[in-house]
């Protein structure tokens, strides 16, 4: 059999194809057998697996149903159809929606899971003004923020740990009214029974283990997944041996950051305009 080697790092489209082939192989199905179950041609399946044809939403949803993967493939397919998002992020969001534990470290802006709609909209509009994304892509980003937050309202609820670099709460995004509502949202989040919110103050200096945002998920089967990004690229890591050191560094970050009570006190001082 002439079996083409796949390079999942080439593009989100190629990564989707590699995932589809892996799931098919795990079930011992040929392309013809998967095609018959899905109602597509074997040629179509081959084109998607090798990255020559992007998966439509209908294709991905049908694959999820046939393969019994929930909505994982449909979510991963968004990375092909949503170029406004960094590579790997749509797939991360799919894992996030079912994670048992979520750990976030953010720099510069409030993370999406804690953003108000107004704050998210102002950020997206800023990207549009700079020509980085289109208005339609900005709408997609704001919609995704709402979808991520809605996915957390489930039973059992995930435990969510958030450490914000002090730079997240210092800038005024959208003016006083937007920031007042955003600060209210942070306080409401901290008061939930399944959350912990801490601030990493500037005074931590070199003791801060991360310079860029880092997200770490504990999945229901206790496997770990991490996501990190720079201004130009996102990277999803599934290898436990690579994620475990990040988890250890995150624990160090929590130990060095302000307690939740002290973090809320810093936030209240900021709201009052005191140093």
What does this molecule look like?
Helix content is 49%, strand content 12%. It is an alpha/beta fold and 275 residues long. It has 2 domains: 8-81, lambda repressor-like DNA-binding domains (434 Repressor (Amino-terminal Domain)), CATH 1.10.260.40; 86-111 and 154-271, Endonuclease, Chain A (2-Layer Sandwich). Strands 3-2-1-4-5-6 form a 6-stranded mixed beta sheet, sandwiched between helices. β5 (224-229) and β6 (234-237) form a beta hairpin. α2 (31-38) packs across α3.
Top CATH class of the largest domain: Alpha Beta
Pattern of helices and strands = HHHHHHEHHEHEEEEHH
Structural class determined from secondary elements: alpha/beta
CATH superfamily grouping of the largest domain: Endonuclease Chain A
Compute the separation of the termini in Å.
69 Å
Unreliable spans are none
């Amino acid at each position: 059999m002439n079996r083409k080697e796949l390079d999942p790092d080439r593009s989100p489209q190629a990564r989707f194809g590699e995932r589809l082939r892996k799931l098919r192989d795990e079930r011992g199905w040929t392309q013809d057998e998967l095609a018959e179950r899905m109602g597509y041609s074997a040629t179509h399946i081959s084109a998607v697996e090798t990255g020559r044809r992007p998966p439509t939403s209908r294709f991905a949803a049908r694959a999820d149903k046939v393969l019994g993967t929930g909505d994982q493939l449909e979510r991963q397919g968004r990375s092909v159809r949503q170029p406004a998002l960094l590579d790997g992020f749509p797939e991360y969001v799919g894992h996030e929606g079912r994670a048992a534990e979520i750990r976030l470290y953010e720099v510069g802006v409030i993370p999406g899971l804690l953003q108000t709609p107004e704050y998210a909209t102002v950020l997206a509009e800023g990207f549009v003004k700079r020509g980085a994304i289109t208005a339609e892509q900005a709408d997609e980003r704001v919609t995704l923020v709402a979808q991520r937050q809605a996915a957390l309202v489930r039973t059992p609820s995930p435990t969510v740990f958030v450490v914000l670099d002090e730079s997240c709460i210092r800038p005024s995004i959208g003016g006083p009214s937007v920031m007042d509502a955003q600060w209210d949202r942070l306080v409401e989040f901290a008061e939930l029974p399944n959350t912990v919110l801490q601030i990493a103050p500037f005074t931590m200096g070199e003791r801060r283990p991360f310079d860029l945002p880092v997200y770490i998920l504990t999945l229901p089967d206790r496997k770990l997944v991490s996501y990190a990004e720079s201004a130009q690229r996102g990277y999803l890591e599934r290898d436990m041996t690579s994620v475990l050191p990040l988890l250890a560094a995150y624990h160090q970050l929590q130990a060095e950051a302000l307690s939740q009570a002290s973090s809320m006190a810093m936030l209240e001082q900021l709201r009052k305009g005191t140093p």
